[in-house]
Amino acid sequence: MSAGLKLGRRDLAQGIGGLWLLLACLTIAVAGLAAVTSLSSAISSTIESQARELLGGDLSLSVAQRSATAEERAAIARLGTVRESVTLRSTAQIGGQTALVDLSGVDERWPAAGRVTLTTGRMPATAGEAAIGRELAERYSLRVGSSLRLGFADFRVTGIIDTLPAPSGFALAPPVLVSRPGLDATRLVQPGSLYTSAYRIALPPGAAFEGLGEAFQKRFPEGGWRVTDKSEAAGGTRRFTERTGQMLLLIALGALGIGSIGIASAASAFAASRRSTIAILKVHGARTRDLAVMLGTSVALLALAAIVLGLAVGATVPAIVGRAAADLLPVAPDPSPQWGALLQSAIFGLLVTLAAAWVPLARAARARPAAVLRGDVDEGGSDRRDLLVPLLAGAGVAALAILTSGNALVTATTLAGGLALAFVFAGAGKLLALAARRFGARGGPITRLGLAALHRPGAATVRLSVALGLGLALLVALAGIGGSVRAELGGSIPAKAPALFMLDIPAADETLFRALAARDLPGADLRLVPSLRGPVTALNGKSVSELESIPEGAWILRGDRGLTFARDLPEGNEVVAGQWWPADYAGPPLVSLDIEAARALNLKIGDTITIAVLGSPIEARIASFRTIDWRSLGFNFAIIFAPGTLEQAPYTLMATASPDRGASTLAFERALAADLPMVSTIRVSDVVAQVTTILEGLDNAIRLATLVAILIGVTVLAGAVAATRRTRMRESVLLKLVGATRGQVLAAQAIEFAAMAGGIVTLAFVTGTAAAYGVVTWLFELPFKPDWPSLLALPLAGMLVAIFTAMAAAWPALAARPATALRSA
């Protein structure tokens, strides 16, 4: 064992001194980081390990509004074991009530891989039987043997579904499975109906799935086929998890950054407590290198202990979340330890500790014995070489964060913004100290004492400003964003949204539909538009299947798109390039596209886009680009055809109904279920409620991660104040010896903390509110409507917590008796 390590072991036996702050900050930060990365990894691990079961096969080929042709079926059959399903939205009639469901007609041995798990009962075997989702059963008190009606057929419940293959993840309607004869009996699948035929394929053992789907698309380029292989299973869940995980990761890294201030403070306090020991050892011939190893050993051992504790806490989060939020998550997290995520968190913790603790330890190891023994405040002086290791460690943290994130640009931008904000709060701390120096002579003696503490030698004003400011600004920003989104979902959207959306209205039954609405929803605003579906198959003659990757924002290339045709420009749309066609247009196919999608694909006016409608390719020239007010909540289509192209295709109608406020829609829904059972009715309130539940869960997770940052900030504050205990004790004793009362000394301390916290809290509120305003108005394109009373309460609460924490940390020094303090000096 080297001399430095032996000295470190002996030194640590004397106690950890100020390193308790390092232990606390690093444990909390690593625990938060490990929790976030472990949960994201656990969900991804489940998706990857159960991809075949989640997809229901190795490969899924799906097509909208039609079934495979004989030639396509033969090509699919040659790939492996095939299981077919036909899925559409439908309205189930349950007694006198109605419910939106995802209805699927499946083969008796469906799916090709994995299985449907039932809480009770069995799968449907005949045309009059159905298995229903657990949510539907619980909501309507259904059980095995209960009855429901789908379309034109009655069914008896034979099983309650717990899980089943679902390539997309989140679903807005509970599932119902029937046999293929049962689906035929409903008479819901008609020309123009919005249904999807899916063919799940189990490949022979050892067969590779890569490239099979693309080869099928190239063989049938005009068929409008969508390919999903097991590497893309639960794609919606995967994307949601990645983006949520990235957001939480950035918050956790922010908490770790705040914790680095506490780590630096702890290292400085620890080094100061060892100054006499270092001087004595140097007098006896100890080398600077051995003393640096001695100090580094103590810090390293405490850091490792903190990291291990943090990892132990974070490793349990997937199992806890899996049990607590099982009904909210479409995929249960893998409860086993996520070693890769834990290793990543440990590396982050080590790098941040190295960056924060290196400089104070290096300076302490170089301290001159003569100066220390004389009582001079000499920490070894500054050396630019001391900054090399912290800079490299900091760069390592940034590089690791960027390389492991799902969006490198967003992560880099956020890290740069956080660093800039840290400099802002550091500058604010310096300005506070300068202001206290300049105006500190004003007021009474108690006020002057309190303000002088902000700029005295060794004051932690700058460090505390950064720690408190960053944490509170983050909390204010997220509270403002979450409040605005909740206000939109809870007030604005329901207020201006139609009460009902209706799908699959047969064009031939438009007159009957309008008559039912006039009878049961008198005075309601009723709007109908033609509706079809089809995927984009080519851009300027180049097949979409030949693209190496789909650009970010080019969502119109993902799956089937809703299509319509219109003579007049829809409400809430504005042409920003090109021209809208005349109302009496009759000519070659023209389309109008959403401007954002066009930008993502670098399209221009006059380019061509090919869309497969019922398996037939239609190449159309782009006539205009539109901005779409998606918040209008009307029928907003990214792709609109000019008249004369789609009218002869079998299409259905979509409709919205906006009755007078407070009017009931139940009679109308029952009339549709009885007279037009093929129509699917969606209550906007149900969709908003489900989306709100998901967003509230996300908001709670973000708030919890932010509270970790606040907790670290409070810990840093308490530790920094505690580190100045000896100085505060000396000042307190001297003041008491000249006649000051304990109340006066306490008041001086309160003025110090109130001045520091008040200025920083105000700046944090301003910056946090500005950031929330930018995100809500520019990114989300929503009005900025936070819960102002709650938002304004945050800085006040933050200020009170900061003052209380600081006073509690300083109390032992303030309570010291002069005689006891002088004897121990």
Summary, kept brief:
The protein is an alpha+beta fold and 825 residues long. Helix content is 53%, strand content 17%.
What do these coordinates show?
Helix 23 packs antiparallel against helix 24 (788-814). It contains 25 helices and 22 strands. It starts with a helix and ends with a helix. Among the domains are: 1-52 and 239-406, no CATH class; 83-196, no CATH class; 525-658, no CATH class. The chain is of the alpha+beta class and 825 residues long. The strands form two sheets. Strands 11, 12, 13, 14, 15, 16, 17, 18, 19, 20, 21 and 22 form a twelve-stranded mixed sheet that branches. InterPro entries: ABC3_permease_C, MacB_PCD, Membrane_comp_ABC_pdt.
Low-confidence stretches: none
Distance between the termini: 36 Å
| Largest sheet, strands/sense/barrel | 12 strands, mixed
Secondary structure tally: strands: 22
Helix content: 40-55%
Q: How many DSSP helices?
A: 25
Q: Strand pairing plus helix content: what structural class?
A: alpha+beta
- Mean pLDDT metric: 82
Strand content: 15-25%
What is the molecular shape? elongated
